[in-house]
Design brief:
single chain; alpha/beta; Rossmann fold; 7-stranded mixed beta sheet; 9 helices
Length: 280
């Protein structure tokens, strides 16, 4: 499916895997098994070839999560941004001390302090150092999200905040058939409000808010889900021509509608933002 959608080969990534199971936990978290992460070569290939992915990532609206976090950060606060890309959040935080982590993008970060470090290595050297720790569009990509979140929490000072953004399991993202960007080796887990609430409790954080947050590609996703002749039900992926055609039709017609029409105010945002506080 990856080759058909993007021209990207996953033969090496998924060698020996003939199917994935999708499991649901009692808290609402859904996860694929086996949980196989995309490596650097996979993402370089995806971003180079994926016109579809570039269209989805187009900056149609300002990053809503950036604006929301800027409201929480006080002058002089230390902020850690994990999986930061080229440091886009830093542009909204001129009043803060910003550190970003991204092994793939640190060389293009320009004036921002973006480092070639993993969160595990950084947490070992900088425990309880930050007032706000952010991870946007990160935990759905890792094979052990709980371990990843525990490393995030290690970096939060007592009384500080952890802010996580994930794609919402109950959004149109999961309604589009054969939407491989929401599958391994790209997305390994699907989150809802209950799952975020549960993981905050497991790592001993107090949830302050779980808020819907729009993504820059919400308009396109909305129209794809409206225009696809077939939507998912109890199954999300199927190697059948009718499912492939439903995705292609949704993409072609949805993209045209996206250019012509506004999204209704009632449309569900594609993301969820967790804001949780570490006890003093």
């Amino acid at each position: 499916m990856w080759r058909g959608a993007f021209g990207v080969s996953t033969d090496r990534q998924l060698a020996g895997v003939d199917h994935f199971d999708l499991w649901e936990s009692p808290c609402g978290l859904a996860f694929f098994e086996p949980m196989l992460e995309g490596d650097e070569d996979f993402y370089l290939d995806l971003y180079r070839r994926g016109d579809f992915h570039r269209a989805l990532s187009a900056p149609r609206i300002a990053r809503a999560e950036f604006r929301r976090i800027a409201e929480l950060v006080r002058p002089g606060d230390k902020v850690l941004d994990v999986g930061c890309g080229e440091g886009g959040l830093a542009r909204h935080l001129p009043h803060a001390v910003y550190v970003g982590l991204d092994p793939h993008c640190y060389a293009n970060a320009g004036e921002f302090d973006v480092r070639n470090e993993t969160i595990g290595a950084h947490a070992a050297l900088h425990p309880e150092e930050y007032d706000v720790v952010c991870a946007f569009h990160a935990i759905e990509h890792v094979a052990d999200p709980l371990d990843f979140i525990r490393d995030l929490v290690k970096c939060v000072r007592p009384g500080g905040r952890l802010c996580i953004v994930v794609p919402s399991r109950t959004s149109p993202l999961t309604e589009i058939p054969n939407f491989v960007l929401n599958a391994p080796p790209h997305h390994l887990s699907w989150w809802d409000e209950g799952a975020l609430q549960a993981v905050a409790g497991v790592v001993d954080l107090k949830t302050e808010a779980i808020e819907p947050v729009p993504f820059s590609f919400d308009s396109l996703i909305y129209w794809m889900s409206r225009c696809a002749p077939k939507l998912t039900g109890d199954r999300y992926f199927r190697a059948h021509w009718t499912w492939h055609c439903a995705l292609a039709w949704g993409w072609l017609v949805g993209r045209a509608c996206d250019a012509l029409f506004r999204v209704p105010a009632s449309a569900r945002p594609s993301g969820l933002l967790l804001i949780a506080r570490k006890p003093p």
